[in-house]
Design goal:
The protein contains eleven helices and 13 strands. The chain is an alpha+beta fold. It is globular. The chain binds flavin-adenine dinucleotide.
Length: 287
């Protein structure tokens, strides 16, 4: 097995263009498990850990750019103020060791329906920056990135360079159901992002369909019906929102849970996270 070790982004793109079958390696918390268990034996590994710029993040004019190699630990410790939904999700990933190595870029590369980054990226309308040597940069909205179970819009000669998202304009929450509190793949998960300026509520559903996805009808419902000047949430609207979020899911029965349980849990998490976010919104308005 070849081991390619570029030190610059240009070298990484060149290596991927010349050897599209080379498997990128960032934290290795997915790739190395697959190799150790003989799930795959690629002809080459493309080690991206020496490409320093992938580990950088910036916030410019209210817009965050997170390099594909920024580990979850940094997301938790440094980005909680600007992207609280993503930071909450990062906090639930694996263990401290996994959060030290594992990255949002790797989560996107794996494109598992259960990946914890995906719901907050969807709710916050994130955009994925990918690049190839031959065709240059493509900016892919998160909602168009996930194509199927562990399949993404990334082409064989492309690498993910960064994730872009607006700094949170309002409260954001992430909720995850697992069989225990740590080191657990989500049975299902849900993210919400309130934007009181645009009067928009974003959603993201995890581990309850072949791909992570938004609950678009539920978002449309709140765009039409939510009274942003009210003090309390209308209970019937909350119930309707939960139901539409569950209807947006398409879960299966598997070892982690039944489809029926997942539908119920999405309904509960949708109502719960909207209530938390709304209460924060009211608190901030009063302050
Ligand atoms: C014990 C354990 C617990 C875990 N718990 C969780 C959990 O709670 N939640 C969760 O979501 N995940 C969990 N995972 C899975 C894993 O940690 C995450 O998916 C993590 O985000 C992967 O990041 P990484 O940098 O280690 O990726 P890697 O393993 O390096 O790569 C993952 C995939 O992305 C591709 N890739 C990496 N970087 C790029 C790039 N720049 N461009 C294109 N493709 C790229 C790789 O080729 C590979 O296909 C766990 C894993 C382990 C071993």
């Amino acid at each position: 097995m070849d081991f390619l070790r570029p030190t610059t982004w240009a070298e990484a793109l060149a290596a991927k263009a010349d050897q599209p079958e080379a498997v990128p390696l960032q934290g290795g918390t997915d790739v190395m498990v697959e190799i150790n268990f003989d799930v795959r034996r690629p002809p080459a590994l493309l080690d991206l850990t020496r490409v320093a710029e992938l580990r950088e993040w910036t916030v410019t004019g209210g817009r965050c750019r997170i390099g594909a190699g920024v580990p979850y630990r940094v997301v938790v410790e440094e980005l909680g103020g600007v992207l609280p939904g993503l930071a909450q999700a990062a906090r639930t990933v694996g263990s401290p060791q996994i959060r030290n190595r594992g990255t949002v870029g790797g989560n996107l590369g794996a494109a598992s329906p259960a990946g914890d980054s995906h719901p907050p990226l969807l709710a916050g309308e994130a955009v994925i920056e990918v690049e190839s040597r031959e065709r240059g940069v493509r900016m892919i909205p998160a909602a168009e990135f996930y194509l199927g179970v562990k399949r993404s819009a990334l082409r064989p000669d492309e690498l993910t360079r960064a994730v872009h998202a607006e700094a949170a304009a309002g409260p954001q929450y992430f909720s995850k159901v697992g069989t225990r509190n740590a080191m657990v793949i989500a049975v299902c998960s849900f993210a919400i992002a309130l934007d009181p300026v645009r009067r928009r509520v974003g959603t993201g559903i995890g581990s309850a369909a072949p791909t992570p996805r938004r609950a678009e009808e539920a978002e449309d419902l709140l765009a039409r019906e939510l009274d942003w000047d009210a003090r309390t949430l209308d209970p019937s609207l909350l119930k309707w929102f939960g139901r539409l979020c569950a209807e947006a899911a398409a879960p299966i029965d598997d070892v982690r849970g039944t489809a029926a349980y997942r539908l119920h849990a999405i309904d509960v998490m949708a109502r719960r996270t909207l209530t938390w976010a709304w209460n924060d919104h009211i608190g901030r308005r009063a302050a």
